[in-house]
Amino acid sequence: MDVIKNMNVKPMLERAEFERLSTPDKGATVNLRIGDDITVTELNNDVVKVSVARTVASNPECIFKIFVEMSAEVLINREAYDALSNAKDYFAKSPVARMLSAQIATIIANLTINSAIGPMITVPMIQA
């Protein structure tokens, strides 16, 4: 039995933050750290809210810091949902998380298009 009743979900932007930082020193090596976090919140007996948040930061801290969070309310089959050992793990591998991650990647590319490094394309991090 499927947990998700249907994929007719609408992605919603929860939060987007872009902070421009100093330009790195000439010839400096900069490593980008990208991290995703997923949360699943029960809204009522038939609906859960799945949120994916991506943070992009550099080491050393320069160029920019980015945080983007998107969510979707998902209609669930309660019996199948209750049978899950870990709802967060289930939704991290679901089409919902892939869709939210793709939306986030598009937003980050648009935010960074005019940055020092050009558009940054980030891949989904939360999938198995």
Task: Describe the structure using short key phrases.
128 residues; alpha+beta; Bacterial Protein-export protein SecB; elongated
Note down, in words, how this protein is organized.
The chain is built from three helices and four strands; from the N terminus they run ββββααα. It has a single domain, classed as Bacterial Protein-export protein SecB, CATH 3.10.420.10. β2 and β3 (47-59) form a beta hairpin. It is α+β, with helices and mostly antiparallel strands and 128 residues long. The protein is elongated. Strands 1-4-3-2 form a four-stranded antiparallel beta sheet. The chain has helices at 78-82, 87-92, 95-112, and strands spanning 12-20, 31-42, 47-59, 64-75.
Stretches where pLDDT is under 50 for at least 5 consecutive residues are none
Spatially, the strands of the biggest sheet line up as: 1-4-3-2
Q: What's the CATH first level?
A: Alpha Beta
Q: Please, what is the average pLDDT?
A: 87
In the CATH hierarchy, the architecture is Roll
Secondary structural class: alpha+beta
Radius of gyration: 17 Å
- State the CATH topology: Bacterial Protein-export protein SecB
Total discrete domains: 1
